[in-house]
Design goal:
The complex is a heterodimer. Chain A is of the alpha/beta class. Chain A has 2 domains: 195 residues, Rossmann fold (3-Layer(aba) Sandwich), CATH 3.40.50.2300; 147 residues, Response regulator (Rossmann fold), CATH 3.40.50. Helices cover 46% and strands 18% of the residues of chain A. The longest helix of chain A is centred in the N-terminal third of the chain and has 28 residues. Chain B is mainly α. Chain B has one domain: Orthogonal Bundle (ABC transporter involved in vitamin B12 uptake, BtuC), CATH 1.10.3470. Helix content of chain B is 72%, strand content 4%. In chain B, the strands form 2 sheets. Chain B has a two-stranded antiparallel ribbon with strand order 1-4. In chain B, strand 2 and strand 3 form a beta hairpin. In chain B, helix 1 packs across helix 6, helix 2 packs across helix 9 and helix 5 runs antiparallel to helix 8. Chain B starts with a helix and ends in a 16-residue tail after the last helix. At the A-B interface, helix 2, strand 8, helix 7, helix 8 and helix 9 of A face helix 1, helix 9 and helix 10 of B.
Chain lengths: 396, 307
């Protein structure tokens, strides 16, 4: 018995030597490699978001590889993507960022997407001083007081008022109902910004129902009954495709036939698959609309569709823009030193300097907080189940 | 609209799921003195089995081999999925619990949790994290009377659950197998000595419980057609609460407590800010348990299968 234990110890030790030895060699042999970390929800509540992230990143890498690598200051680097699954959980996103920064030694991180993961993960990136761009997180706290954290999308404190402004101008309604997940950063933040903006436009008490539930809830009949009883003229529900189909279906089954308005979290290809006819005619505010796109945006959409068989959602488009922002910033450094900490600093500074970047989701200029200034798109889901461009809401 | 009556209807539907799942918890506890914590995940498995059976049947119709009307597809789905899922339940009993029958109860409870995780992650590995949409087998028709909106789906769900509760009640009371189950619940040690085959009865109990969970899963899929591997956790835990509330070992009590829990949740969300729903609902459960520590129909000293 003891001999077996002894042998086992030797084996484990040998394995450790091999593993760490290999890791050690790797660090020296692959000097001409730039590693970019991707922190994406490949499993969990919103796997489609993770899939879009991964596909967009792979397309970007394809371009880099087709060009023979990424040229920075006269040196051509091989680019390596390290994709980590954050399981759509805050704690896993934090762990994934920590691993990417300390263990994999990435130069920069793209992701996480949802605010629930991006807010805590941004804290890690900022503390460990590694530049991070969240393509899709719209909660202000993701970048607030975090010089190392950027984003590629507009904010909830712009999106909430934009939705309120759109409904007021379009329908002339005065009584709003809101249904949101109180346990998730993004819907909660957006619901509150919407409420504040709506009450500013229509006076206190004009949000006649402000109802909530918690993540994983499947039955919203009690909340919807209250909403219908409140006499609201429309429903605003800034939820993900995990709940939206159920909310729409149950609302219609309870006899609610008024407009339902959502936010950018609706913009997933999966929403229409799951909700079917229930989502036709609904509106949501978002970053881009696939139907009616032109130029580089259209090129991206066509290429993505040909490769993966479906029209990319906003996550894919924003991830694409984020990767190009990083690429731009890396090039703007004028050359990397090979000292990862100095290089991260150089990339961060270059990112902060980017002005009027031509992205496929619009032109961006970063503010001091690392947030871009850009317009918001209102999409209507048409009778074929396509996301159709409806109108722009400009930043004030 | 009549908010009160509407909420009663909502609560009846929501309670149906808790009731059907709680029955399984309660039966297993009565007969084998253990809580099968994998039960919520068997509910998930049932929903997926139902999804595949119904998709196959719908596909059969679409390809022109055997066109069946939707109501028949639903009935066949329920029957086939119940049978298939009961095999899953029996397998869980055979692999997870039978080897541990003489082990401490804590080990058995732990096994249940582990099997639950295996079922969740197994599904995740097999089918991926993509949400699945349950086919619309019942074309929704909405009825309105007395200020209440009811859909035909809701009526089917509530009726099927109540019918199954009554059927189970009759099975346990009137058949020989039912009698064996009751006897086993009465005395776990002596009854097997009298020639009652404990392994068969245990498998039967798990099979029946799982079949009910499968029906709950299919009905759930009809009402909330977004399926995912973790859908059984929360519903399973709450149904477990219902089983405790009904009185450990009381099958009918578990069913009634399931409906009660549905009512508590819906009405708390109606009367208070919905943010506090679970907080208040489960505080009420604690208060009930303080005054009735053995639940509504349970007994202090035995887990007799009371009917």
């Amino acid at each position: 018995m003891s001999r077996r234990v002894g042998r086992l110890t030797v084996l484990v030790a040998a394995a450790l030597v091999v593993v760490f030895g290999a890791a050690g060699c790797g660090a020296t042999a692959e000097q001409a490699v730039i590693k970019i970390g991707i922190n994406a929800p490949l499993t969990g509540d919103i796997p489609k978001v993770g899939e879009g992230t991964k596909y967009a990143a792979e397309m970007w890498l394809e371009d880099i590889e087709a060009a023979g690598g990424l040229e920075v200051g006269g040196v051509t680097y091989k680019v390596e993507l390290i994709i980590e699954d954050n399981e759509s959980k805050a704690e896993s996103a934090v762990a994934a960022n920590t691993k990417l920064i300390t263990q994999d030694q990435v130069l920069a991180i793209i992701g996480p997407q949802a605010s629930k993961q991006a807010v805590p993960a941004g804290e890690v990136a900022n503390n460990l001083e590694c530049p991070m761009i969240s393509p899709w997180s719209t909660n202000p706290r993701t970048t607030k007081d975090r010089p190392w954290v950027f984003r590629a999308c507009f904010l909830d404190d712009f999106q909430g008022p934009a939705a309120a402004k759109f409904v007021t101008e379009e329908f002339g309604f005065t009584k709003a109902a809101v249904l949101y997940d109180v346990a998730s950063d993004y819907p909660k933040g957006l619901a509150e910004f919407f409420k504040a903006a709506w009450e500013e436009l229509h006076g206190p008490g004009s949000v006649v129902a402000f109802e909530s539930f918690t993540t994983k809830d499947r039955d919203f009949s009690a909340q919807l009954t209250k909403i219908i009883d409140s006499g609201a003229e429309f429903l605003f529900t800034p939820q993900y495709y995990d709940e939206v189909p159920l909310i729409l279906k149950q609302a219609h089954q309870l006899g609610f036939d008024k407009p339902i308005v959502g936010s950018d979290s609706w913009g997933s290809a999966e929403l229409v698959n799951l909700a079917g006819e229930d989502c036709y005619g609904c509106f949501f505010t978002t970053h881009y609309a696939a139907a009616g796109a032109t130029g580089a945006t259209k090129e991206f959409i066509d290429r993505y569709e040909a490769k993966y068989g479906y029209v990319p959602d906003d996550v894919a488009a924003l991830t694409w823009d984020s990767l190009h922002l990083i690429e731009q910033a890396i090039k703007d450094t004028g050359g990397l030193t090979g000292d990862i900490e100095a290089d991260r600093k150089a990339v961060r500074d270059a990112l902060a300097r980017i002005k009027n970047f031509q992205g496929i989701t619009g032109n961006m200029t970063f503010t001091e907080e690392g947030d871009p200034i850009k317009a918001c798109v209102v999409v209507r889901i048409n009778e074929e189940g396509e996301f159709e461009f409806y109108k722009f809401v400009e930043p004030e | 609209m009549n908010v009160f009556l509407q909420s009663v209807v909502n609560a009846l539907q929501w309670g149906s799921f808790y009731a059907l799942i709680a029955l399984g918890y309660s039966m297993v506890y009565s007969v084998l003195m253990l809580f099968n914590f994998a039960h919520g995940d068997i509910f998930m498995v049932g929903a997926y089995v139902g999804l595949f059976v119904s998709t196959a049947l719908v596909g059969l119709g679409a390809s022109g081999v055997l066109a069946l009307p939707n109501w028949l597809i639903l009935v066949l789905t329920i029957i086939l999925a119940a049978i298939l899922t009961s095999f899953v339940g029996m397998l869980v009993e055979r692999v997870g619990y039978r080897p541990l029958r003489k082990a401490p109860r804590a080990s058995a409870a732990l096994t249940g949790l582990m099997i639950g995780i295996i079922l969740q992650t197994g599904n995740l590995a097999l089918l991926g994290a993509r949400r699945r949409s349950f086919p619309t087998l019942i074309e929704t028709t909405t009825f309105e009377f007395a200020g209440v909106t009811v859909t035909n789906t809701k009526i089917v769900i509530v009726l099927v659950s109540i019918l199954l509760m009554i059927a189970l009640h009759q099975f346990v009371r009137r058949t020989k197998w039912g009698m064996a189950m009751r006897a086993m619940a009465y005395d776990f040690v002596v009854v097997p000595l009298m020639g009652v085959p404990i392994n068969t009865i245990a498998a039967l109990t798990f099979g029946l419980g799982s079949a009910l969970a499968a029906v709950a899963g299919i009905l759930f899929g009809l009402a909330y057609p977004v399926l995912e591997p973790y859908m059984g956790i929360l519903v399973g835990w709450k149904a477990f609460v219902a089983a405790i509330l009904g009185g450990r070992g009381s099958v009918l009590g578990a069913g009634l407590a399931g409906f009660l829990l549905g009512f508590i949740e819906i009405f708390v969300a109606l009367l208070f800010p919905s943010t506090f729903r679970d907080l208040i609902a489960f505080s009420i459960v604690i208060v009930i348990l303080t005054f009735r520590p053995h639940g509504f129909f349970g007994e202090a000293y035995s887990a007799r299968l009371r009917l």
